Amino acid sequence: RFSGFYDDRKPAPNRRLEENAATVLGSIEDLIRDCRTGKIDIVFITLSLAAEARIRLITEKLADTTASVYLVPDLFTFNLLNSRWVDYQGITAISIYETPFAGIDSAIKRIEDIVLSFFILCLIAIPMLLIAIGIKATSKGPVFFKQTRYGMDGEKIKVWKFRTMTVTEDGDKVIQAQKNDQRVTHFGKILRRTSLDELPQFFNSLGGSMSIVGPRPHAVAHNEEYRAKIQGYMLRHKVKPGITGLAQINGFRGETDTLDKMEGRIKYDLQYIQTWTLLLDLKIILLTITRGFVGKDVY
Predict the structure, then answer these.
(1) How far apart are CA 230 and CA 188, in angstroms?
(2) φ, ψ at 104 (rounded to 5°)
(3) Cβ of 160: how many Cβ atoms within 10 Å?
(4) Closest CA to 176 of 131, 112, 119, 221
(5) Phi first, then psi: what are they for 197, rounded to 5°?
(6) Shortest CA distance to 21 belongs to which of 37, 34, 2, 4?
(7) Residue 92: φ, ψ to 5°
(8) I need a labelling partner for 119 at 20 to 30 A (CA). Which of 32, 46, 84, 273 fits?
């Protein structure tokens, strides 16, 4: 049962306590007195981490009472990616930037990828064969195209795609496909518009280098460009890259020709990591079927 706040400081407009000023019961000395008389059983200290000296003083005074005392660190200052308590040889720590896939969640995510990837590959085997025939019949070159991307924890992986261009760029500079791009074949335009060129990535997901749902993998050259422009960009690599993701079902597919578009994509990528659940993955997969295969900025 919440009793109220205790604070020596006067209410100020820039302090969150101002909204609850009516529940300030008194000063810190009043708190100590109420704890000694048994009026207060539990104390939560919610001061800023910068107030170390003040926290130490309050805890020393509370040591002369029988109240239980908890410290609530103000970690939201750090814009947490995924937070949980960990213990390393007796040292307690709180994760700030960490993958949500640990322990049982990691196993659930992997089982999801294996089962769904195998099932989907069985369904799309014949369409993939027809696409392969179409590529060979309409342009010269290999059916598949492998491009180097960043995987989980920044490890480089080879991502499979159906070839849709007359070139297979995978160097230090990769030019994104643009409207009326002369490098894209006529058959390739159909594949890119419908995202059918991404189907071979279910082999990546089955093999474990990718996941069905996660942040879309970007070319290494694009990563090196945007990591310097967008704060927290590389945090998207705390999970495996995905064939589809939260950003894609919210309209951030295809060309990211402006910084705003890339920032919008990264915002949804980090939101996915922060809020991941199995149900969220299933929702994204279902919404991808209804709205994620096409996009006005896909060239």
Answers:
(1) 31
(2) -65, -30
(3) 20
(4) 221
(5) -70, -15
(6) 4
(7) -85, 135
(8) 273
What does the block give as tokens for 23? 């529940």
Tell me the angle at which helices 278-287 and 104-138 cross, rounded to the nearest 10 degrees: 20
Instruction: Give the burial string for 249-286 (b: 16+ CB within 10 Å, else e).
Output: bbbbbbbbeeeebbbbbbbbbbebbeebeeeebeebbe
Tokens read off for 240: 């495996």
Query: Could you tell me the pTM of the whole model?
Result: 0.76
H helices present in the chain, as ranges: 28-36, 52-62, 104-138, 186-194, 201-207, 220-226, 246-249, 259-275, 278-287
Mean pLDDT by 10 residues, the chain (299 residues): 86 59 83 93 89 92 91 79 81 84 92 97 96 92 90 91 78 61 84 90 96 92 87 91 93 78 93 94 93 56
Contact 144, 161 (CB under 8 A): yes
Query: What does the DSSP assignment read for 41-103?
Result: -EEEE---TT-HHHHHHHHHHHTTS--EEEE---GGGG--SS--EEEETTEEEE-SS--S--T
Give the pairing of strands 24-26 and 5-6.
parallel
Q: What are phi and psi of 13, to 5 degrees?
A: -60, -30
Which of 256, 185, 177 minimizes the C-alpha distance to 216? 256
227, 200 contact by CB (below 8 A): no
Residue 151 is classified by DSSP as -
